[in-house]
UniProtKB/TrEMBL annotation:
UniProt keyword Transferase present: no
Source taxonomy: Eukaryota, Metazoa, Ecdysozoa, Nematoda, Chromadorea
GO annotation terms (biological process): cell junction organization
Protein name: Uncharacterized protein
Keywords linked to the UniProt accession: SH3 domain
Species, as recorded: Pristionchus entomophagus
């Protein structure tokens, strides 16, 4: 029916429709030769209805054609069938759909933006009416400011907002009236209130269009990991708190616009290594798009710098430096880390699993159980020690037995992941032992949190799991003496200390946790851990961008 269908193809299509109808209903067919003219007439009508005509025109043409045929007095069986077909609702819908598609009409038609000349000022203005969905609490999704000449202009159009979807509002548009109220001398804060307080869910804006028209450069596939917490509702210099994005350390944010030096646009997509995949329900919810401080603003605030209530700048600000920096695997001074999603097959070696938590949170208990359940799947490191080898011990099995001077040399050269002294002997785990373990299975490590500084690097590509102790009450209930490998119950002081240390570890390192386990009931904790480890093996996960660009990863 569209531009490209020839008369021959059209006739074949009709033949097929009629054939199908005959098969369905019985009876005879055959479009006789003298009816070919009628087919040609139908084809021409379809062609006429093609460009620019409205969807309903095709049905008017269709009805006109039927009427013409019926009143011609020559209604053969074939024509009757054709008329019956053209009267069927689904055939008529198919005609409308084909007509719309051939005209490239895929979405609802919106009325054109009315432009008119303002009688008072003699300038061209556009009038835009926006209607808010009943159940949304946000405004229309713009921020406004006074420009250098003191005129009120749109400074930002938020991604995915009503304003952006309308396609009628641009950055730089000058606001003249809101709901017929002249706002040219009003303060932007008061105008913002008018825009949020949309009577009957709609707002009408009279604006002087930006000149030249502005476009919004939207980013795609740029993601950040928040390395600090941010609460937009308590940020007094936020340009539009209703559209603020808040986040906690470790949240993954989809960055959509960063043309503004101080305020970026994006949405929080979840938390941890599997954010946005629904693999592990970890704060999974796709928040709406909003504004949050750029890296520049975060750093400025940290260094004590102040900014005015609003300031707008152009240019693709700091994201370039953010994403192109080399190794930033453990830079605690930065507010964000650029991340990308890598599939398990993109890593050159098996990722070590780091179980991080307070002493007695249960890291070794979980490790022991995993090693017993799957001895071939997991591996562990063999530590170094300077103590004397005992009779039943073999070098390289229980320990690597080395001299004190050799171990001190390894420590001074930075070859140890961690080390300590006990009863006059040095003990520790060498970084080479982690690499060796990764050749034998998935290494399960329970290092001190300080070792994260060394281990969170592209040469180890670790997956970090926080083992969280339950509430004090659940801790007491779950750790009955019978369940403890240590044989004696925890004292009240010991439990308090575990809770405190756990909070301190979380505060210092939460940004780098890929996942977390609540270790209350040991069986539940174990099955949660297995589920996460299965995902590490099968699902793409967020890692620092610098890991993806390293050739030796
Ligand atoms: N969910 C649990 N239910 C009952 N007992 C547990 C649970 N988790 C751990 N335990 C017991 O608590 C004690 C401490 O656990 P574990 O040794 O695994 O701690 P850890 O985090 O490895 O700390 P550390 O380095 O001090 O050993 C052990 O006796 C262990 O059997």
């Amino acid at each position: 029916m569209g531009e490209g269908i020839s008369l021959k193809e059209f006739r074949q299509a009709l033949d097929l429709i009629i054939e199908a109808s005959v098969e369905e209903n019985g009876g005879s067919r055959i479009m006789v030769e003298d009816e070919v003219n009628n087919v040609e007439l139908l084809h021409n009508l379809m062609k006429k209805a093609r460009n620019g005509s409205h969807s309903s025109d095709i049905l008017v043409q269709c009805d006109g054609f039927i009427h013409e045929w019926e009143s011609s007095g020559r209604i053969s069986a074939a024509v009757q069938q054709l008329i019956a077909l053209l009267n069927r609702p689904h055939v008529r819908s198919a005609l409308v759909a084909a007509h719309d598609i051939s005209n490239g009409r895929y979405s609802p038609e919106l009325p054109p933006v009315p432009f008119e000349v303002d009688d008072d000022d003699g300038i061209a203005v556009k009038i835009v009416k926006l209607v808010k969905k009943a159940n949304t609490s946000n405004g229309i999704g713009v921020t406004i400011k006074k420009d250098s000449k003191g005129r009120v202009v749109i400074s930002r159009v938020l991604k995915d907002s009503i304003a952006e979807k309308s396609g009628c509002i641009q950055e730089g548009d000058r606001i003249l009236e809101v709901n017929s109220l002249n706002v040219q001398k009003m303060d932007p804060t008061d105008i913002a209130l008018l825009l949020t307080d949309m009577e009957c869910g709609s707002v009408s804006l009279k604006m002087h269009p930006a000149d030249p028209p502005t476009t919004m450069a939207t980013l795609s596939n740029i993601h950040l990991r928040a390395l600090s917490d941010y609460d937009s509702s308590s940020d007094r210099s936020h340009p539009c708190t209703e559209s603020g994005v808040s986040f906690s350390r470790g949240d993954i944010i989809e960055l959509l616009m960063c043309g503004d030096d101080y305020w970026w646009q994006g949405r929080r997509i979840g938390r941890g290594a599997f954010a946005g995949t629904n693999a592990i329900a970890n704060g999974e919810c796709r928040d709406s798009v909003g504004l949050f401080p750029s890296e520049t603003l975060m750093l400025k605030r940290r260094s004590g710098g102040t900014i005015g209530k609003r300031r707008d700048m152009d240019g693709l600000g700091t994201i370039k430096s953010l994403s192109s920096k080399g190794s930033r695997d453990f830079d605690e001074t930065l507010p964000y880390e650029s991340v990308c999603r890598l599939s398990p097959t993109s890593f050159a070696h098996i990722r070590p699993i780091l179980l991080i938590g307070a002493p007695s949170a249960g890291r070794n208990e979980l490790k022991r159980r995993l090693m017993t359940l799957y001895p071939k799947r997991f591996s562990s490191t063999v530590p170094h020690t300077t103590r004397t080898q005992r009779e039943k011990e073999a070098n390289g099995v229980q320990y690597h037995f080395v001299s004190r001077s050799r171990m001190e040399e390894m420590i001074s050269k930075g070859e140890m992941m961690e080390f300590g002294e006990f009863k006059g002997n040095l003990y520790g785990t060498a970084l080479s032992a982690v690499h060796l373990a990764a050749t034998k299975g998935m290494p399960l490590l329970t290092p001190h949190p300080l070792a994260l500084k060394t281990l969170r690097s592209p040469s180890f590509i670790p997956f970090i799991i926080f083992i969280r102790p339950p509430s004090k009450k659940d801790f007491i209930n779950s750790r009955s003496a019978a369940s403890l490998s240590r044989g004696r119950p925890f004292s009240e002081n010991e439990i308090d200390s575990i809770m405190e240390q756990s909070q301190a570890i979380e505060k210092a390192h939460a940004a780098y946790f890929d996942a977390e386990i609540l270790n209350s009931d040991i069986e539940c904790a174990l099955s949660d851990l297995i589920r996460i480890l299965d995902s590490v093996d099968s699902i793409p996960s967020w890692v620092p961008l610098s890991w993806a660009t390293r050739e030796d990863r």
